[in-house]
Design a protein that fits this description.
This protein has about 1000 residues and is α+β, with helices and mostly antiparallel strands. Among the domains are: about 1-55; about 55-165, Phosphorylase Kinase, domain 1 (2-Layer Sandwich), CATH 3.30.200; about 180-220 and about 255-395, Orthogonal Bundle (Transferase(Phosphotransferase), domain 1), CATH 1.10.510; about 845-965, Serine Threonine Protein Phosphatase 5, Tetratricopeptide repeat, CATH 1.25.40. The chain is built from 43 helices and 13 strands. Helix 6 (about 185-200) runs antiparallel to helix 8 (about 275-290), helix 36 packs antiparallel against helix 37 (about 825-840) and helix 41 runs antiparallel to helix 42. The N and C termini lie far apart (about 95 Å). The model is unreliable at about 1-10, about 55-75, about 235-240, about 240-250, about 395-400, about 410-435 and about 455-460 (pLDDT under 50).
Length: about 1000
């Protein structure tokens, strides 16, 4: 055919191509009126092309092959084959029953198209029926994001084919990963796909095989355009698509296992509807967000047909954020990198609303899913607009959070003080704290409103109301944050409370005293030591100044011994004075503290009758100080005298605390058998353990367990703990926290005996529990890395990064940094570890020498070998106790020298200083000692530098030996003299 003439620079062929895109003949005629204008010849040429393209009968009724006289019917198709007016150029791919080719159309226009034809050997009635259904499905739809159908026909052998728009694109997941699309960009692209599926559903078509390879992304003028393809197993929701029955054989899957809905997997005859596609969309969204499907496709196929169906129908998938949190550090970093985000930020963006949206799509009961694909798109739009999503139960707190996000400036202007406080709390970025933050904002708003109303009447805000508000805020929020190891936000809150007490409560001494009492307790509360004893001492000094001006009836119940009945405890005024004197010892003012305590003891003895409870409390405080100072003999004397002085009606709380201290002192001075006896005698029957006594009961159990382990009676310790756990769990009022702590102790018994295989599953369960502490995470991580379990080690690193790094400081920051650096890491993790080490000194009550060269170790992980090797020359300096640290319990430096030695050997070996490296290794082996075994049991020590350091040193030892072997450095024989 000769080339058509041009009019105004446009050819008949160009107009033809645009005309065939119009949906109806009326639209095409209207378009030609404008495009051809007053050129009748051009109009006739275009209409001739259109007539040939749109034959009188539908292509679904008359095979297109009849339009050409040059039909080649090959035995098998391949590049070069001519079918009708199409020449096959290359194969694009194959599905379950069809092969797709790039083909060149010869007439009425020349263009490249995609041609799909039944595969040889697959031309059964059922397959042909499905194939014709796909042709009809595509013919019914007209949407820019669904591949258009141009033509269809059948070969002379009856094998049908159809011709559709050639989409040069890649699967949507591949496109997003290769272009490092952010989560927001992925959602925007996915919303377009939802609209395309919605169009299909409106036409009565279910796709039934939605997956990334059937959603191709191509570029139009630089803009990403997704195209949904392959309706090969589509099903009509209204009527028959073809006069042939689409029959699914028993036990035959329709769809791709990883993406099909439970009702598709069930194969029970349950009628499919559009909500099956909603499920598949949810799987694609899951994969776009975190890079994996809810259930691994390969594992499903390998599990067998029955198990595959059971998993899809019955097993609940993990939430995307939960699944993401279980990635190894490398997997999480790689996944975040493909989304242009940092790991913590990615996890934060997925957690919450996106979790709810995805899981609503993946509901097993289709009645609980979104009704339409546009419903999914609408909820995603709400998420992007910071509006409440339908998928999440609309609680008042949640609605309020969304309002704040949409109107940040207005809220900030209306409540600057509230925002400042809540920023400190929100730093930890997990759901529990956000709920608390909303409650605090509400209470502050109520307080400000009440204050404003009183100000209008010329009144001042009552000081006791201010104190009550701050006490509620601190008591409700601080303990949970401290339990999770988040000292930094608590320090900010306590600083604000101190300023308020100094400026707003000067005329209300009773209210100020009660607030400062709470602050002092919090400053001295931390699982691994003291948060800040100098700050606590400052509060107690102010309390002693306030005591003379506060009437006895306004002193109330002091908070340190709040669990002790008021009639069984010292007078509040005595307790405050004792605590102030005790804190003098903890902050290093030893002479003053000893003198104050001696004066108090003399006063208590002179009273009539003698104030034995106050005297006993005084001795308990002194004993605790001597214990942690490293003088267990003096501690034993003080605790023994305290126990003797306690009246018969003394509350069990005092007996527990005193026996804990006495048993610890005996164990530290080598009398573990006596420590065991003292602890056993103090244990009450479990039926007498009230909720108020649960914590100290668990504390005495821990002390008893320690005494047994020091005697290498590990089996007895395990039996004791399991028996106690069973008895306590049978009680209805048993504290979950107490059971959790006992489970931790069981794991630690195995850990300190060297049995990592038994210890790790228990401590992993403790660490990953919602009640798990920062200490649980780092302890389990050291055992995992020390025993070579890299998978669990990386999992725990992710937990530490996402849950605990934000608010950690002091020893908590040091412990997290140590586990993060136990293996070579990427730049992001190394940077986080460096920031954590910078926070070590922010806790005033922290022994700096226990860093065991962690900063030099950080330099090694950064590749700064010379700086790292300098640790070897400083080993003697680090072995000297920090003089600024007032107290240190005996044995807390176990295996410290081994860590320093191995951390020195590595950079020395890399620098080629082989002799020094071998010397460091030999010294490390000497300090580390032999590994425990059933034949030669050994106690690796408890909390505070014991078994955790041993396992960490073991990991370093293995790394040293690997480097030695790689560099040809001879590993010193065990027991060989060092040079």
């Amino acid at each position: 055919m000769s080339e058509p003439e041009t009019t105004k620079g446009r050819t008949a062929k160009e107009i033809f191509f645009e005309a065939i895109e119009k949906a109806t003949p009326q639209e095409r005629a209207a378009y030609l009126d404008g495009a051809c204008g007053k050129d009748p010849a051009l109009r006739r040429q275009v209409e001739d092309l259109l007539a040939k393209h749109f034959q009188q009968d539908s292509f679904m009724k008359q095979p297109a092959a009849e339009a050409s006289k040059t039909v080649v019917v090959p035995i098998s198709e391949g590049p070069g084959t001519v079918i009708g007016r199409y020449k096959l150029l290359e194969k694009l791919g194959e599905g379950g029953f069809g092969a797709v080719y790039v083909a060149e159309q010869k007439e009425p226009v020349k263009r490249r198209v995609a041609l799909k034809i039944i595969k040889l050997g697959m031309d059964t009635k059922q397959v042909i029926a499905r194939f014709e259904a796909e042709r009809q499905a595509l013919a019914l739809m007209d949407h820019p994001n669904i591949a258009k159908v141009f033509d269809a026909g059948a070969t002379e052998t009856g094998r049908p084919y159809f011709v559709m728009e050639l989409v040069r694109g890649v699967p949507i997941t591949t496109y997003c990963d290769e272009n490092k699309l952010s989560t927001v960009e992925r959602l925007q692209l996915f919303m377009v796909v939802c609209q395309a599926i919605q169009h299909a559903h409106q036409k009565g078509i279910i796709h039934r095989d939605i997956k990334p390879s059937n959603i191709l992304v191509t570029l139009h003028d630089g803009v990403a355009v997704p195209k949904v393809i392959d309706f090969g197993i589509a099903k009509a929701t209204h009527g028959e698509l073809t006069d042939k029955t689409i029959y699914t054989q028993f036990q035959q899957f329709i769809g791709t296992p990883a993406y099909i809905s439970p009702e598709q997997a069930e194969m029970s005859g349950l009628d499919m509807d559009t909500r099956s596609d909603i499920y598949s969309l949810g799987v694609v969204l899951y994969e776009l967000l975190i890079g994996r499907t809810p259930f691994d496709g390969r594992e499903l196929v390998m599990s067998g047909l029955d198990e595959m169906r059971r998993i899809i129908r019955e097993q609940e998938p993990l939430r995307p954020s939960t699944r993401l949190g279980g990635y190894t550090a490398e997997e999480l970093t790689a996944t975040a990198k493909r989304r242009g985000a940092e790991p913590p930020k990615l996890l934060h963006s997925v957690r919450g609303d996106l979790d709810w949206i995805v899981m609503k799509c993946l509901e097993k009961d289709r009645a609980r899913r979104y009704e339409t694909a546009s419903g999914v798109s609408a909820d995603l739009k709400r998420f992007l607009n910071n509006e409440p999503v339908v998928a999440r139960p609309p609680s008042a707190v949640y609605q309020f959070q969304k309002f704040v996000r949409r109107h940040e400036r207005a809220v900030a202007a209306a409540g600057a003080v509230a925002v400042a406080v809540m920023l400190a709390l929100g730093f930890t970025a997990f759901a529990l704290l956000r709920e608390r933050a909303a409650l605090v904002r509400e209470r502050q708003a109520q307080f400000r409103q009440a204050a404003a109303e009183k100000a209008k009447k010329g009144e001042t805000v009552r000081a006791d109301a201010v104190a009550q508000f701050m006490k509620h805020l601190l008591a409700g929020t601080a303990p949970e944050l401290l339990r999770q190891g988040h000292q930094r936000p608590i320090r900010e809150l306590l600083k604000a409370a101190d300023e308020l007490a100094s400026t707003g409560l000067s005329n209300a001494p009773a209210a100020e005293l009660q607030l400062r009492d709470l602050m002092a307790v919090l400053y001295m509360t931390d699982l691994t030591g003291h948060l800040d004893s100098p700050a606590a001492y400052k509060q107690m000094k102010r309390i002693t100044e306030l005591l003379p001006s506060v009437p006895p009836d306004q002193l109330g119940i002091t908070l340190l011994l709040a669990d002790v009945p008021e009639d069984k405890r010292p007078a509040p005024r005595d307790e405050y004075r004792i605590r102030a004197a005790m804190l003098s010892l903890w902050v290093g003012e030893t002479n003053r503290g000893v003198a104050d305590l001696q004066a108090l003891r003399d006063e208590f003895r002179r009273r009539t009758p003698p104030a034995d409870r106050s005297l006993a409390l005084c001795l308990m405080g002194e004993g605790s100080f001597y214990l942690w100072k490293g003088d267990p003999a003096a501690a034993e004397t003080k605790f023994t005298e305290a126990l003797r002085l306690m009246p018969a009606d003394t509350a069990p709380f005092y007996f527990y605390v005193t026996r804990i201290g006495l048993a610890m002192a005996l164990a530290d001075r080598g009398a573990a058998d006596r420590a065991e006896r003292v602890a056993r005698e103090g244990l009450l029957p479990t039926d007498r353990i009230t909720p108020d006594l649960a914590d100290v009961h668990v504390g005495l159990l821990s002390t008893l367990t320690d005494a047994l382990c020091r005697q290498k009676l590990f089996a007895q310790a395990e039996t004791l703990l399991r028996d106690q756990k069973d008895k306590l769990s049978a009680r209805k009022d048993c504290s979950p926290g107490a059971l959790h702590a006992i489970e931790r102790q069981i794991g630690e018994v195995f850990a300190r005996s060297g049995n990592a295989r038994e210890a790790l599953p228990i401590l992993m369960s403790v660490a990953t529990n919602s009640m798990g502490l920062m200490y649980d995470c780092t302890a389990a991580a050291t055992i995992a890395i020390g025993s070579g379990d890299l998978e669990n080690y990386r999992r725990l690193c992710v937990i530490a990064l996402t849950r605990f790094t934000a608010g950690a400081e002091g020893i908590n920051a040091l412990n997290i940094a140590n586990i993060l650096l136990a293996l070579p890491q990427n730049e992001v993790v190394i940077q986080v570890a460096g920031e954590l080490l910078d926070r070590v000194g922010q806790a005033a009550d922290f022994p700096k020498d226990t860093e065991v060269g962690s900063r030099h170790w950080l330099e090694f992980r950064k590749g700064h070998l010379v700086e790292a090797a300098a640790l070897w020359a400083k080993r003697s300096e680090l072995a000297t106790p920090d003089p600024s640290w007032a107290t240190r319990r005996k044995g807390s430096d176990s295996f410290k020298a081994a860590l320093i030695a191995f951390r020195s050997a590595l950079p020395l070996a890399h620098l080629g200083r082989s002799d020094e490296a071998r010397l460091a290794y030999a010294e490390g082996m000497k300090e580390l000692g032999p590994a425990p075994s059933p034949e030669k049991p050994r106690d690796l020590g408890g909390v505070g530098g014991g078994y955790a350091r041993w396992y960490l040193a073991e990991a370093h030892r293995r790394e040293v030996e690997q480097v030695f072997k790689a560099k040809g450095i001879a590993i010193p024989e065990p027991g060989a003299p060092s040079k």
